[in-house]
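[step 3/7] inverse_fold.run input=structure_tokens len=272
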């Protein structure tokens, strides 16, 4: 995992994250949960509104809710007279807000470590906050996040009902790899897609991780007994808090890696 420190060093040498900031004096609204976490981790004191999905850190929970990440209350946001609004990638509200004279920053979907660092710079520089300290901390924590495994487990991750899963260019795929595993659908070009159960059986994952609390019991599916994950009792469903952490590219990314690594380590230690 030392590669994350090396990457950060290169970024700093190239001038990223070293801009001297001016005091943050803007009124900020964040409709992007990952951006919200980054803003607070950077020390912003001027976030005045968030989306209904922004449930971390605790300070964000107390702020006025401006609708959902995908369905914001555009008029309410404009009435709050924000200096800047952060939205998720491809937000339908971007053009509507801009037409009302609101400055909008669309935060790209980060699907690897470099893009996470880029997003921190994008967010921090947009509100005149220094980013180097946070990036350095994340890089250090990444190096300590995963215990080395004896064997690379092959992992199937379910992100939604109907066997929706994550392909290669996704944050989940990055986390699985950083935690020491291999995403069985990591070579798929489509970031997110629905796969067939027959394809899952053919790939024969060692571990199944579900991001759907109260979701399907895969052990009852036809041919499930052929899958190593089912035979060895290695089906894990994350809690809602864990799902939030592994779904948001931000300050808690090292914790996300640690969550998956602990699952992989537990599966390895109980190998039959």
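[step 3/7] decode complete -> sequence:
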């Amino acid at each position: 995992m030392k590669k994350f420190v090396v990457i950060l060093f290169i970024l700093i040498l190239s001038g990223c994250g070293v801009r001297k900031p001016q005091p943050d004096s803007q009124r900020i609204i964040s409709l992007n949960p990952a951006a919200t976490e980054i803003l607070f981790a950077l020390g912003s004191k001027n976030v005045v509104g968030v989306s209904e999905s922004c449930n971390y850190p605790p300070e964000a929970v107390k702020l006025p809710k401006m609708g959902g990440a995908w369905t914001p209350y555009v008029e309410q946001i404009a009435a709050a007279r924000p200096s800047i609004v952060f939205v998720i990638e491809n937000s339908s509200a971007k053009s509507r807000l801009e037409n009302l004279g609101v400055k909008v920053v669309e935060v790209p979907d980060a699907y690897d470590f470099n893009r996470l660092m880029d997003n921190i710079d994008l967010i921090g520089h947009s509100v005149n906050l220094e980013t180097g300290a946070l990036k350095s901390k994340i890089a250090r924590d990444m190096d300590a996040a995963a215990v080395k495994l004896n064997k690379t487990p092959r992992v199937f991750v379910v992100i939604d009902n109907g066997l929706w899963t994550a392909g290669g260019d996704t944050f989940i795929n990055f986390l699985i790899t950083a935690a020491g595993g291999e995403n069985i659908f990591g070579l798929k070009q489509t970031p997110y897609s629905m796969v067939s159960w027959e394809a899952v059986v053919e790939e024969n994952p060692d571990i199944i991780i579900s991001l759907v609390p109260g979701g399907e019991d895969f052990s009852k599916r036809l041919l499930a007994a052929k899958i190593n994950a089912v035979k060895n009792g290695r089906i894990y469903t994350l809690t809602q808090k864990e799902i939030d952490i592994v779904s948001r590219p931000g300050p808690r990314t090292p914790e996300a890696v640690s969550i998956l690594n602990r699952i992989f380590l537990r599966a390895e230690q109980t190998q039959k």
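[step 4/7] annotate
The first strand starts at residue 28 and ends at 30.
Residues 253-269 form the longest helix (17 residues).
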